[in-house]
Amino acid sequence: MGTPLDYGQKPYNHYGAYLRDKYDGKRVFKIIADGGFTCPNRDGSKGYGGCTYCNVDSFTPELSRKLPTIREQIEQGMERAIKSYAAEKFIIYFQPNTNTYAPTHYLKSLYDEALSINTENIVGLSVGTRPDCIDFEKIALLESYSDRFDVDLEMGMESIYNDTLAQINRGCTHEELVQALELAKNSKLDLCVHTIFGFPWETKEMMLAYADEINRFPQIKFVKLHHLHIVEGSIMGVKYKREPFKLFELEEYTQFLAEFIPRLRPDIVIQRTFGLADYDLLIAPNWGLKKSEIQLYIDKGLESRVAIQGSQYQPSLLV
User: Fold this and answer.
1) Fold of 10-306
2) Considering the entire predicted model, what is its pTM?
């Protein structure tokens, strides 16, 4: 007799099931668009070099890095998703760098172009950005698409500790994230925050506290949970090669998630449970498995530990 996981039931509120339920079982895929943006801690307005863990190429598919126009990226991305995964509907995902870091009129022209391609099969717009690059005008722009598409605004939380944010050259504080969340408190947008676990100076207890902080904001609908990985072309990569430091092994990370996910508010949808980088850029940790194998390992580990999302959620901790 099989386990719930054998029948597609995970012990957490996962994004795949959310998409299937929302879009009547249609196969929905994100198509990554690179708008050619930079970041305020790369171009000198706040700093140079970017976040110390970041090489933007490590999370941008090679195809989108080479294509010159938004239209070509999206058309080819859709074609590939249809042929390889039988995709039926699409979410246009502006992922690399800071995708609200430009004047609003320019952002509108870019988003308009992306959403005009195969519009009848586009169901959503997802925009990744930094909390210090959000204001009322940009929220209003994104909301203007919400009568036709589901709009997901994704912001990097990374850590809840300002000491960590300073060490990784983040260029913004946790208070700025809180301010951005408050700006969008009554918005039509679906808000997502992205976290990174495993900075070597943060303890397990410090990382578990991320859940309590996320739980404080009812406007947060999605989370992406990533482990720290070290990539070529990053400042942290140079430091790691000189003096390696402790990173999560897969079993350790699974155990951590088994403690973290039960603390997370049960209505939040988990879009991802781990991070990925191209193997030609990845320095460490290399778990030696394909994406699907890592996901299955984590899911089985959570199920065997009876790590059910929200089972240890304590509203009394919200302040």
Assistant:
1) TIM Barrel (3.20.20)
2) 0.92
